[in-house]
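User: Design a sequence. Structure:
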């Protein structure tokens, strides 16, 4: 678990983790979109590596937010508006699964293109 941000509460730690995950997901989308359009294999691989790194970081931040939320109780026990967060985290995880599928498809396409030209 990440330490609480200096001068911030436990709740703010949850929100910081979610915001950080969202920011990494936006970066992931940019890297992945650029990788899918890149012509040069070297650029494509660098962008795919950056996308994979952003994916892992976003997932770690969602894990942190989940862990913090679960320590406060089940979704039914959380007060409003915190009771909405578990569903939102599930939606973010679904987006990350879709992004992981796109990364795998892009890697497979880059590998087959590279192997075909070798």
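Assistant: Done.
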């Amino acid at each position: 678990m990440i330490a609480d941000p200096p001068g911030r509460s436990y709740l703010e730690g949850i929100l910081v983790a979610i915001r950080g995950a969202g920011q990494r997901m936006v970066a992931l989308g940019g890297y992945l979109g650029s990788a899918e359009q890149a012509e040069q294999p070297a650029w494509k691989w660098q962008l795919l590596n950056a996308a994979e790194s952003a994916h892992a970081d976003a997932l770690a931040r969602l894990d942190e937010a989940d862990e913090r939320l679960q320590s406060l109780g089940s979704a039914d026990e959380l007060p409003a508006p915190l009771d909405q967060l578990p569903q939102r985290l599930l939606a973010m995880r679904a987006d990350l699964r879709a992004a992981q599928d796109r990364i795998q498809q892009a890697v497979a396409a880059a590998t087959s293109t590279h192997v075909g030209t070798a």
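DSSP finds three helices and no strands in the chain. The chain has a mean pLDDT of 90.
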